[in-house]
């Protein structure tokens, strides 16, 4: 059975007593108890999508899988069959203390409880450092404070006494490190410069993984971390070109459709896409029947942009097509089949992002045979231009120390070098800080002019647009299909298995 076939096997939860049979018949000898943890394994985020797919692949290889996340599973309606038995689906501690509003059941108090109850051999985390730092902190708390004064006597400790305290503390730390579960972490690297506070978390990871070639280089360059390169995967059997997509074209069959699929957050830089699209339709004098823009994201995201206001301001209300939305309040999302249809109705996919750890929607669009336009920053270069990302070096974009520095790639207009076989790299001129009040990566800001020119290029050259889509599809099959990525994860955990002693629950 191939990795992609594993993703589409029957759901044991819907097959009577099969789940119990699976649990009994599946030998644990030589295999691991793995707890994949994500922001939301049951929601359509990049981290969530990758987590559940990795879990399915490892389950198919014989490992025991249990998820941890912040979604309530009773509210989730799966859009695709899922090969996990109920007894093997751990997680969901709804009554645990809340650490941060909006991150219920997912924090410093819930995580140790998961580990205590289920004793995984390996924790597999998508290590967003702001959300998941408690994972590595609980593994090995390196920030140990030693007293200078004996509280009982009021006297300064001498060197011998301090040495004894230090040795005792580090012995305890090493005990935690040796006896606790190992941590395999997929480390995002989506902007520069890197943040020094990440060093402690990275040092506490036993098996680091980089989801991009850019991230692998950055982790080595900034933290001396030798991470395994395993990118996100895409189901190329599902996300594929369609002759007659059911969404989008029925109401405007002759329209040039520009699409974007992303989280509605500032980093995605969507107002620039609106401006660039607005310039494009104005220059070409296209009516709302002749051009459409799909922004498939949560328009009501509290942390995102208010699209209706921007569309009204730019005179684009009639050009916007509504997104396909599930019931977000109930934790639902649209099916993968509907997403594949959505990509297939697009003539071009555009993401003017300020920086990506990887970019799953970009690769999903590529797999559907859609040419892509992505900012030439972080992972954009390797997705569009690299033929062999595992072995090719990618740009690391050295930045100066001033906020107003012009980047090396700074320009507003497309040039011939930006037009590649499977898409267009959008140049950028300016940068901004993701969060000015604290340490955060800088983000690339591509111009609306460059977006407009990219749209014009594909609008004027339909044959080149089709050719770019075919090349994008071929590259997705070669580098990012789950038959390729699944094998990498199986090999990776075979190596992990050989290096650790599995933890077994007491009967």
Task: Explain what the structure shows.
This protein has 507 residues and is of the alpha/beta class. It folds into 2 domains: 3-233 and 483-499, 3-Layer(aba) Sandwich (Rossmann fold), CATH 3.40.50.2000; 256-480, Rossmann fold, CATH 3.40.50. The chain has 16 helices and 15 strands. The protein has a 7-stranded mixed beta sheet with strand order 9-8-7-10-11-13-12, with helices on both faces. Strands 2-1-3-4-5-6 form a 6-stranded parallel beta sheet, with helices on both faces. α9 packs across α14 (448-460) and α12 (360-367) packs across α15. It starts with a helix and ends in an 8-residue tail after the last helix.
How would you describe this structure in keywords?
507 residues, alpha/beta, Rossmann fold, 2 domains, seven-stranded mixed β-sheet, 12% strand, globular
Chain-wise SSE layout:
Blueprint: H1 3-6, H2 18-25, E1 33-37, H3 46-60, E2 64-65, H4 110-118, E3 122-126, H5 129-139, H6 159-179, E4 182-187, H7 198-203, E5 207-210, H8 213-223, E6 228-229, E7 256-261, H9 270-283, E8 291-296, H10 307-313, E9 320-321, H11 336-344, E10 348-351, H12 360-367, E11 372-375, H13 380-384, E12 419-420, E13 423-426, E14 428-433, E15 442-446, H14 448-460, H15 462-479, H16 482-499
Helix pairs in contact: 9-14, 12-15
Sequence stretches where pLDDT stays below 50 over 5 or more residues: 1-28, 71-109, 140-144, 327-332, 400-408
Q: Quick one: overall form?
A: globular
The CATH architecture assignment of the largest domain turns out to be 3-Layer(aba) Sandwich
- The CATH topology of the largest domain, please? Rossmann fold
What proportion of the residues is helical, as a percent range? 25-40%
For this structure, the quaternary state is single chain
Number of domains: 2
- Indicate the radius of gyration in whole angstroms: 24 Å
Structural class: alpha/beta
* CATH C-level name of the largest domain: Alpha Beta
Distance between the termini: 33 Å
Number of helices: 16
Strand order of the largest sheet: 9-8-7-10-11-13-12
CATH superfamily of the largest domain, by name, is Glycogen Phosphorylase B
Portion of residues in beta strands equals 5-15%
Would you tell me the overall average pLDDT? 75
Total number of strands? 15
């Amino acid at each position: 059975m191939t990795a992609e076939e594993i993703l589409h096997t029957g759901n044991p939860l819907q097959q009577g007593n099969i789940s119990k049979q699976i649990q009994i018949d599946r030998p644990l000898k030589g295999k691991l108890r793995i707890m994949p943890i994500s922001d939301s394994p049951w929601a359509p985020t990049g981290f969530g999508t990758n987590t559940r797919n990795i879990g399915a692949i490892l389950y198919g290889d014989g490992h025991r899988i249990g998820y941890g996340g912040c979604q309530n599973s009773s509210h989730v309606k799966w859009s695709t069959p899922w090969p996990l038995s109920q007894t093997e689906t751990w997680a969901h501690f709804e009554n645990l203390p809340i650490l941060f509003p909006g991150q219920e059941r997912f924090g410093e108090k819930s995580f140790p409880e998961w580990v205590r109850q289920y004793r995984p051999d390996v924790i597999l985390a998508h290590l967003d450092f702001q959300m998941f730092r408690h994972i590595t902190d609980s593994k090995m708390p390196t920030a140990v404070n030693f007293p200078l004064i004996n509280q009982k006597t009021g006297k300064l400790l001498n060197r011998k006494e301090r040495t004894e305290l230090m040795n005792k503390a580090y012995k305890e730390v090493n005990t935690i490190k040796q006896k606790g579960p190992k941590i395999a972490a997929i480390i995002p690297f989506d902007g520069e410069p890197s943040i020094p506070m990440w060093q402690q978390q990275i040092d506490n990871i036993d098996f680091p993984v980089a989801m991009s070639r850019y991230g692998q280089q950055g982790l080595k360059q900034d933290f001396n971390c030798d991470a395994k390169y395993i990118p996100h995967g895409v189901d190329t059997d599902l996300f594929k070109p369609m002759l007659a997509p059911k969404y989008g074209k029925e109401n405007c069959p002759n329209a040039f459709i520009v699409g974007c699929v992303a989280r509605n957050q500032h980093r995605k830089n969507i107002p620039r896409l609106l401006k660039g699209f607005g310039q494009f339709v104005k220059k070409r004098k296209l009516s709302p029947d002749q051009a459409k823009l799909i922004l498939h994201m949560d328009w009501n995201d509290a942390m995102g942009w208010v699209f209706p206001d921007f569309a009204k301001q730019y005179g684009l209300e009639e050009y916007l097509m509504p997104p396909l939305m599930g019931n977000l309040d109930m934790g639902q999302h649209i099916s993968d089949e509907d997403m594949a249809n959505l990509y297939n109705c697009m003539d071009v996919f555009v993401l003017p992002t300020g920086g990506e750890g990887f970019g799953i929607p970009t690769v999903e669009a590529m797999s559907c045979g859609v040419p892509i336009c992505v900012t030439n920053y972080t992972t954009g270069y390797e997705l569009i231009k690299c033929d062999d990302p595992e072995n090719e070096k990618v740009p690391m974009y050295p930045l100066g120390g001033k906020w107003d520095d012009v980047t090396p790639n700074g320009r507003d207009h497309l040039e011939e070098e930006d037009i590649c076989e499977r898409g267009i790299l959008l140049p950028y001129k300016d940068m901004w800080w993701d969060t000015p009040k604290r340490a955060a990566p800088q983000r690339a800001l591509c111009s609306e002019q460059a977006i407009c020119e990219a749209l014009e290029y594909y609008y004027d050259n339909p044959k080149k647009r089709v050719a770019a889509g075919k090349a994008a599809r071929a590259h997705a099959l070669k580098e990012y299909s789950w038959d390729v990525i699944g094998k990498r994860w199986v090999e990776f955990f075979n190596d992990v298995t050989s290096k650790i002693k599995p933890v077994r629950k007491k009967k």
